[in-house]
Amino acid sequence: MAAVAERAGRDPNPAAPPLDEMMLAMDVVDTLRHAERLVERELAADQRDLELKERLREIYRSQGIEVPDRVLDQGVAALREGRFAYRPPPPGMARTLALLWVRRRRWLTGLVLGLAGLAALFAAYAVFFHWPEQRRQAAERQELVEVLPRSMRGELDRIRALARPGEALAAAERLAGAGSAAVDAGDAAAARARLGELRALRELLEQSYVLRIVSRPHQPSGVFRIPAANPRARNYYVIVEALDAQGRPVSVPITSEEDGRTAQVTRFGVRVDQATYDRVRADKLDDGIIQNSRFGEKRRGELRPDYAFPTTGGAILEW
Question: Does the keyword Transmembrane apply (predicted)?
């Protein structure tokens, strides 16, 4: 710095400031910027440039540096004009592009991570939702087009082979028609329901059993009910059980006339008149055994049993 100051002193009137003087002027400006208290007291108070130059000269002398007046003048003028101060370029496309390029590592990393996250999200959606839903829809379409119509045709053919013309066959034709309409409408749930009813009808037609009056000790063979709607009346029932040819219990669908509930049971009460009830009761009281215990028979291909006693066909599930 001292050498620079000496060379500057030997050339008092240069045509253009040499690079060394320019660098020294920049150092003066830098010194002014860092001496915040000095700038506040001198420049902000609008005192004379001469006083400021003297203070600056003292700062440099304390460091063993001699600075010419013209360099001090250049430094003070540069500080006032903000000549060496950095001024960011005005907003614009060029600046935006330049900033994007400078910060490319940061935003490219974020972009890559974001794209990776989106890819993982889409992959998870495809694996856990989209593909399973596509498979489900394809399976449902196949079910509607092939499985359900074929199954309903099969059940209807088996029912036709079992049932004689009459109520059972008419019910089967009605269910098959409703199932076909549901298939045409694309309603798989309704088609499945009609298929289930066809199967239940076919299974009922396939059943064969004998209804026998329960005649075991300590088990009722008949009961009566007093209906809530008419306390002076009585409803009489004979308790029967369904047995196959080997005497094994058979589970049959029975609907209670008291609450409309349907259940698969092997034992239930069948509605009879009082005379039939009294006759069965007397038969059991005679010797504890009901001699005529065969109440009816359900044959294969028929919907309902043929009854050996007068009955409305009404039934109860509990007593």
Answer: yes
